[in-house]
Structure prediction request, 182 residues.
Amino acid sequence: MMIIICPGIHEPEITDSFISKCLSQTTVKTMVFPGQGALALSAPHILQFLGDRLKNQRNSPVVFISFSAGVVGAIVAAWNWQILGGQVKAFIAIDGWGVPLWGNFPIHRLSHDYFTHWSSLLLGSGHNNFYAEPAVDHLSLWRSPQTVQGWWVDSDCQGSPQQMRLTATEFLHVLVKRYESK
Prediction:
C-alpha cells in the first residue's frame, strides 16, 4: 500500500509537519505531490505524478490523503487512477468543504468544525468521519492534528450514529491501520 499526500495551497513546511505528526509511525510508504499553488487543484498533474512514480505498479493499492484545495485535484485523480486500472483503497479528505466526494472506494472526511462536517455530508462522504470540537481554524487540522480534539462519527451503526472522542491524529492512525491490514 502507498499513501499519496495531496496538500492544499500553503507552505510545504506545514505538510512536513502533518507527515511527522500523523504518519511517522507507519511503515507504509508515503509520497507527497509536489505541486505548489494552483497545481494542488490539478488532477492531470497529480495523475502524471502517480504514473511517473508508480510506473507499472497500478495494481499496488493507494490511499489518498488530501487537504483543502488539494481535495479538488485529488478526488478527480483518484477516479481517473481507477479508470486507468489503478486500485484506490481509500480517500481521506481533510477540510475539503464544498467538494463533492463520490467514488466506488471508501471515503472519509475530517472537518475543522461541526458546521463544515454537517454541510459537507450533503456532498457525499463515507461512514467514518471526524469533526473538531471545539472548533479550530482551518489550517490547524493540517499543521497540528495531534492537538485537535473532536468526534469520530461512525454512521455504519444501525440506528443513530455512534461517536467516539479522540484527536485527528488518532482518527487518521485508525484509518491507516485499517487499510494497511486489508
About this structure: DSSP finds six helices and eight strands in the chain. Residues 8 and 70 are 4 Å apart (CA to CA). The chain has a mean pLDDT of 88. The two ends are 10 Å apart (CA to CA).
